[in-house]
Amino acid sequence: MNESTSATPARRSDATRQAILEAARERFAADGYERATIRAIAQQAKIDPSMVMRYYGNKEGLFAAAVAIDLKLPDAGSLPRGEAGRALVTHFLHQWEENEVLTALLRVGVTNDAGAERMRGIFSDQLLPLARRLCPDPEQAPARAALVSSQLLGLALTRYVLCFPPAVHLHPEEITAWLAPTVQHYLTAPHPGA
Amino acid sequence: MNESTSATPARRSDATRQAILEAARERFAADGYERATIRAIAQQAKIDPSMVMRYYGNKEGLFAAAVAIDLKLPDAGSLPRGEAGRALVTHFLHQWEENEVLTALLRVGVTNDAGAERMRGIFSDQLLPLARRLCPDPEQAPARAALVSSQLLGLALTRYVLCFPPAVHLHPEEITAWLAPTVQHYLTAPHPGA
DNA sequence: ATCGTAGGCCAACACGCATTGGCCAACAAG
DNA sequence: CTTGTTGGCCAATGCGTGTTGGCCTACGAT
Prior knowledge:
Oligomer: homodimer
Structural class of chain A: mainly alpha
Strand content of chain A: under 5%
Distance between the termini of chain A: 63 Å
């Protein structure tokens, strides 16, 4: 009945706020930043456009609130070193299938600079530390993390955004079978001579 | 003095038409479809916005004319089978560095459905046939081509669009050293069991 | 019962956009 | 020299956008 902690006053409008966020994620994921209009988001949330402004200030604020996301990457210490690639790929795939926020973030990151900045932040805050613990030479961690992200984001791009038919029809297990060795290689293989 | 063939009447306005196309490519590459305005393109081409409409009909027509591109992929027959991965990666990297059209196409493909459709067309017209000749079982060609494009487009995404710092700073030779084996593997390795 | 406040909607604003039609100058053919 | 045509600009239109302020209703504390 009451709020869980004193930090959350439990406003009466929380349901509306949540409905706005969910609609925003869906529209941003489907249309990207510019084409997702406040009006369309409000209509989908079944409220007035002005409410969005009242609760989130402006469109940028709404976007920031809608894509505050945690990848929940597994802890590097808990991973068997040889299974890191497979674990990462399956985790990513799972997150992406169940959570449209990631597609929204990718779509927006490509057109909006604030979105790109947020993706860079997620990269360096969440993927990079993991690479730092797994790869042989910590100095190579940024490059290796960049390679891993290029493969994982490239899959998301072709499968969920551009919708290349063969990429869409691949089974998750098949994707894992192909990508896990690649990611594992990028993380732990010795640096190939140029 | 005269036109090369009867098909091209060699209008007096060809220089302007070309200037518009170049400006359009640059703006589409930098801003994406929605944020690249006719006004900005016209200003950069140093002509009036109405000229763009006169010559290309509307914004979609301009985009279609601006990104008519040929990847100029090497012929599959001329490639030593073991070198296909390396050849593809270096070719892609080279095309992307010198030609902003590709970045424009990627940026637009993510937000605009016509752009996505064009990328799917390039995929199936240019990359898929190459995979069909290189991979062991032609029936697996679509899946293998999709995997290759996921890695190559993922690199372009992180390096040229999202601008992850480590991806930007990687040297082309280093990229090739890492990605060539991956692409080669996707094209020619036996299908890994799920 | 009263009253302050929060949740909600409506109507409007200013702006930037793609797009249009009319006008003017320069060229080229007669 | 005249005349039709082409290349170009200017000004305006209509629309959709993010954003704002005022008004009404219903709740919650006193």
